[in-house]
Design brief:
A: mainly alpha, Sodium/glucose cotransporter, about 80% helix, B: mainly alpha, 1 helix
Chain lengths: ~525, ~35
């Protein structure tokens, strides 16, 4: 159990610094563009740290760390994709054109960017709507991760833990906008790098240094029968190719999150905060180091918890606690020195708050900017409620919408089941990739982007993802029970389709729809589109 | 190496460090690049 006195002293210092940075953000938010995009003039180091801190949440540390304890070190490929795709390709390939086009078109949000590139109001509000419906799934998962951890370590009731965590984060997001979010992200990202580095060193010392990996290899006979029968071969080897465990690890955990990260609205908007292309280049070293340390440590430590628990309790990690999401907190609480437990609680709070703040901000601006601007101009909308075009009015609407979306996330956190952090994260990232990635790619690279292609891709990707999730992919369909109700079986298809993630089906269909839509549009009006 | 025999796991770790090193070198080399 954490030393309460040490923790509250450290937490008080942390809270004061966060509030000071939030106040700085509030002071520097003078207009709507400041609130939405931090004035397009953010420092590269802050950008790199903020990107990593937003990217890495309690889902990565507790959720995927727990998965590493269950399924082993194969998840290291997710770290590789997080660095290669999540930072290098994201910044070098997507980031620069996103910043340039966003500035040229005056886009303030990710849906706004798609709407303006494709000259389509539908693209803007459909993207905004998908964010408003899908993103609470992710923000609530992050909130649950933070809340469960506070409950376990600090003995604070879960209800108060998630209300407190939400209230503190909400305060600086609603009032300080993206400037406050990115300043506090930078502090939280630094804390995560320092804390996770210390945890890696202590974990290795607990399991006998690098010999710990040999001990883990020697434990392969302890793989639970249920997992061994579905392809797991050990904690330091990859699952059997084509087995159910292999499909789960590769299609959901590694691909879903590794590729899904490219079309994350809360990360894409970061590129639009940079002053110029140079700033994006300078943010890359900070980004790659931050991501390597935070995720690399979380997953390696996760797998090594098996060695520690087996040496001290004669049990593997999943036998110590039935809930995958509890493995990492239990390990920290049981094995780490007091000062590091305090440090880890702060790291987790930082990881949860930095991701939640960005998600709250994106959901709020999707509701307040992307949806509201269309709703208020609709004929059926009462003029009394529609407000003015003045900038101050928009800023007020964005703050109010952010508050509403935060309340929705908190409500969802009460009804979502436990043990869901990693899966809900992978679900949201899969949805983003299927719905947005093809259209976003065309938006930043095509000189002649097709509106019909983009709309077809967005609709096909999101519908295919939803159908596959509800009717085929067993991990979700068996929980949602819609398939069982309609077809009498938890999954409408048989193996291996039941373990192939929705992303692997919906993304190719989304790309096909984009190509077909583009061809139809060009055939109809060759002169207009080829001009 | 380090008690890990599976080449896929070792390759995964190697690619993590190579990607990170590339990111650091790229950022330094392009530190003052004006072209967007």
């Amino acid at each position: 159990m954490v030393n309460q006195l040490y923790f509250w002293m450290a937490a008080a210092v942390y809270a004061v610094v966060v509030l000071y940075l939030a106040w700085l953000g509030y002071k520097r938010t003078r207009c709507n563009a400041d609130y939405m995009l931090a004035g397009r003039d953010i420092h590269p180091v802050i950008l790199g740290l903020s990107y990593a801190a937003t990217f890495i949440s309690t889902s990565a540390i507790v959720g995927f760390g727990g998965y590493a304890a269950k399924l082993g070190l194969g998840i290291i490929w997710l770290v590789m994709l997080n660095v290669l795709v999540g930072v290098l390709i994201a910044f070098i390939v997507y980031g620069k054109p996103t910043r340039r086009i966003g500035k040229r078109l005056g886009a303030l949000t990710f849906p706004d960017l798609l709407g303006k590139v494709f000259k389509s109001d539908f693209m803007q509000y459909a993207t905004g709507l998908i964010i408003m419906v899908g993103m609470p799934l992710y923000s609530s998962a992050v909130l649950i991760g933070g809340g469960r951890f506070i409950e376990e370590v600090l003995d604070v009731p879960y209800l108060w833990a998630i209300i407190g965590l939400t209230a503190i984060t909400a305060a600086y997001v609603v009032f300080g906008g993206l400037v406050a979010v990115m300043y506090t992200d930078a502090l939280q990202g630094s804390l995560m790098i320092f804390g996770m580095s210390a945890i890696m060193i202590v974990t290795l010392s607990l399991v006998g240094g690098f010999d710990g990996f040999q001990s883990l290899t020697d434990m392969s006979h302890l793989v639970p029968a249920g997992l061994a029968s579905t392809g797991m071969t050990g904690w330091t080897s990859f699952p059997e190719l084509g087995s159910a465990t292999w499909y789960t690890l590769v299609t959901t955990i590694i691909m879903g999150v590794g590729i899904g990260v490219l079309a994350q609205p809360q990360l894409a908007v970061r590129f639009m905060t940079a002053k110029d292309g140079k700033s994006l280049n300078r943010a890359i070293p900070v980004g790659v180091i931050s991501i390597l340390i935070t995720t690399g440590v979380a997953y390696t430590m996760g797998a090594l918890t098996n060695v520690y628990f087996y040496q001290h309790f004669g049990k593997i990690s999943t036998e110590m606690t039935g809930n995958v999401d509890s493995i990492v907190p239990l390990f920290i609480n049981t094995a780490m020195p007091e000062w590091l437990v305090v440090m880890f609680v702060l790291v987790l709070l930082a990881a949860a708050m930095s991701t939640m703040s960005s998600l709250f901000h994106v959901m709020g601006t999707a509701a307040g900017h992307d949806i509201w601007v269309h709703l208020r101009k609709a004929k059926f909308f009462p003029t009394k409620l529609s407000g003015s075009d003045e900038d101050a009015s928009k800023l007020k609407v964005n703050k109010a919408a952010t508050f509403v979306m935060i309340a929705a996330s908190l409500g969802l956190a009460f009804v979502m089941p436990g043990d869901i952090i990693a899966r809900a994260t992978a679900m949201f990232m899969g949805l983003c990739a299927a719905a947005f990635l093809p259209a976003y790619t065309v938006a930043v690279f095509s000189k002649n982007p097709s509106r019909l292609g983009a709309i077809a891709s967005l609709l096909t990707g999101s519908v295919a993802w939803a159908v596959w999730t509800v009717f085929v992919h067993k991990a979700e369909s068996s929980v949602l029970k819609v398939s069982e109700l309609l077809t009498g079986s938890p999954s409408a298809l048989g193996f291996p389709w039941t373990v192939v993630d929705s992303l692997c089906i919906a993304l190719p269909l989304s790309i096909a729809a984009l190509i077909i839509g583009t061809m139809i549009e060009r055939r109809k009006a060759p002169t207009a589109t080829e001009a | 190496m380090f008690g890990i025999d599976d080449p896929w796991i070792l390759l995964g770790y190697a690619l993590c460090f190579i990607s990170t090193a590339f990111g650091i070198v790229y950022g330094i080399l392009k530190w003052n690049e004006e072209v967007d």
